[in-house]
Amino acid sequence: MPDPTKPLSPRLRRGRCRLCGLCLGSALLAIIVSALVHVFSSSTHPTPSPRFSVIIDGGSTGTRAHVFAAGPDGRPDLARSAVMRVSPGLSSFADDTARAGESLRLLLEFAREKIGGEGGASATEVRLMATAGLRLLEDRVQEAILASCRDVLRASGFRFEDSWAKVIPGSDEGIYAWVAANYALGTLGGDPHKTIGIIELGGASAQLTFVIDEVLPPELSTNFSFGETTYTLYTNSFLNFGQNTYPSAIIETCNKAMNAAQDLFHEIVRSRGSSENGTLVDPCAPKGYSHKREIMIKTSGASRSNLENQYVDNGSGNFKECRSSSLMMMQEGKEKCQYQQCHLGSTFVPELRGHFLATENFYFTSKFFGLEQSSSLSDFALAGEQLCNEDLSTLRQKYLNHSDEDFSRYCFSSAYIVALLHDGLGIPLDDKRIEYSNQVGDTQVEWALGAFIANTKNAIDGGAARRVHNHRPLLAVLGAFSACGVFLVLRWRKPKTKIIYDLEKGRYIITCIS
């Protein structure tokens, strides 16, 4: 065996130098050829222009036009996305449905400008997806509003089909929001157990969506596929559980509970006539707050009547009563429960596992109180109780940039959030698995983004396949040069041998040549 301390012979050194030079030359040649292949393949496949899509979100308090752009790989190009909002929402045209379509014109002009004018519009889909505001209306009113909107969308110059304007189920809204949140986190398409659940608190409804392992009734679970992964989701929309639909109902409930002689109370109200105001106590507003509002109250008959501007509610600032009244409203219909256990009315909700993102009015409430994103429900309860118990005059001095309506809104929402998440869904008061935010990183988490991703997920998968196909020539060149390099190295490392006859042993042996 050669002595490792002995200097290499000139011949061996020259051999090694030649091998090193050959390897370096091959590597350099591989880089040059790869670059040429990439340049020529790029020139034959120019980068396509962004493909746009417009999704109009018909919410309960306003209508938004979301303009989304898809990059060459089909994924959202969020830097090119834009949004515009107009108010009021489509549901406000219930008494004049013919005017609903006109409310979309400003949004369509905005979208047309963002995608480059008429030429871009003709190649761009526009879809109208209405949510809880319209779901609360009668079917005939819904259809009349949609018909008015379809007339405008048909004549807009965008690609449009009548079936693209519709009222979407609340479960779809929840799934789309879940898709948007997990896309922003980078967990969409990966391990289901690493995804995040989402809870939305809108104006007219609340949505809850998260991955489950247990077997549920088919009406409570759905499968969503992205890439090679299929997710089993629990998704539910709680209509009338929105932040804007509860305060009036709570005032009714509280005052009915306080008045044992309910029929006598109604008789007194009716005897006052339409010109006089009744006074109701609102536990969900600070002391000193007074507001005239319309209350739907059941008279002695079977129907409900709207006694317009009949009541002035005065705030009593009672956080605990507001919370208990909220829970009481959530449990209405529990006697109709058809499952083993119902947490909210007659609806089954499985145990909430994993982490969650709470958006919309959850986030706005935490932001008002200056709470951290991962605050606990006990933080909401403490902040809400302090706000509700303050006099209105004190609050005006403390919060100079907020209105009286803000104090009433957030006194209520803080109690409502604790009632919904802790008293209703069983999340511990000290639990910090929930983050209250409307965005992940720089990405706004909105269900419209999830709808865009769900509608274009086939293009996203195709974009990944195209990227692999476009790089095949480059990979082939690199692979060939790598194989040559490996062959040369193995050839150099393989020892040279010869067969000799060993006189001492009396047989042929194989020996290495230095």
Automatic annotation (TrEMBL):
It comes from the Eukaryota. This is Uncharacterized protein. It comes from Avena sativa (Oat).
